[in-house]
Amino acid sequence: MNRGQERLRSLLRRKNLDAVLFSSLENIRFLCGFTGSDGALIYGREERYFLSDSRYEEQAKGELQGAGFERYKKKLEGIARRLRALRVKRLGFEGSALTWETYQSLKSHLPRMTLVPLTAEIWDLRACKEPAEVEKVRQAIRIASESFADAVPRLKPGVREKTAGDFLEFRMKRRGGEASSFPIIVASGPRAALPHGKASAKRMEKGETVVVDFGVRHEGYHSDETKTIILGKPDGKQKKIYELVRKAQDKAIKAIRPGISVRAIDRAAREVISRAGYGPFFGHGTGHGIGLAVHEAPTVSPRGRGVVEPGMIFSVEPGVYLPGWGGVRLEDLVLVTDRGCEVLTYLSKELGDNVLKG
Ligand code: ZN
Ligand code: ZN
To answer: Which ligand has its closest atom nearest to the C-alpha of 227?
Structure first.
């Protein structure tokens, strides 16, 4: 049993629930091993059932761990039938995943059952990774990093952002990745001021700053990393902003150890940027957990809650975005250890290593 399952069991007891209904594919995979794209998991105190239709029967029977398979023709009727058979009186559900329609339908099928929404408790389930999960993230990082190296020759003046991004994605798949973690960001020149500037038809130009944010999925687990490169000799402002973001990232990484609050980690990065007068130009959180989903617990931001624990993997990705000029973001993934953290991503974030004289 992994730590997530232990947390879930104590949650069942604490909230006096007979079972929890899972509908998000990441949690289903995490709790019973099913990797397909449709189904529901009823996680009871003693019994667990994964329910799906005939398309997934064979696959589920091969993959399921610790849960029985049950086939349905109509999803809701199947779920309701099983809940009735288990005599579930209080059912927890994923507040962020169950649709309003399904909720209403469950209520009408089982009018006497109490439905209990779970939000933060469920959000934290997958936060601490098992060694096997860490290994999958490491593998994803390796695939992405090697692919980035393959794509470096394409990051040069005259090449369209999208051409470079597509090549990077192709290499990641070629090297064994399942899919890009998200649409790759290649944002050059003034477009680098868009924190999520998807690769466009714009051609990169000499002297520009280029933000490249990329990652790959490997056995369900994601990587996520951002490099900022400069096409040619950096000018004073490029140097200044780059070094500022680098310092902010470094401060945050140095602050990480078990027991420190996520807000304190965010603050460590934010203070460096604010003190230099660029606070208003760092509009997003410092980081996010990653694993079966690209964004999961913990949320490392001014609004995040809780403290970090050994086994958590999250990003540290401060950035400064100046409208009309461009931006710099540096993103690494860290694993919280017993005494501090290990930086899992290994591509250099030193300015000198990111100046491409193509
Ligand atoms: Zn990223
Ligand atoms: Zn990220």
So the answer is: 1
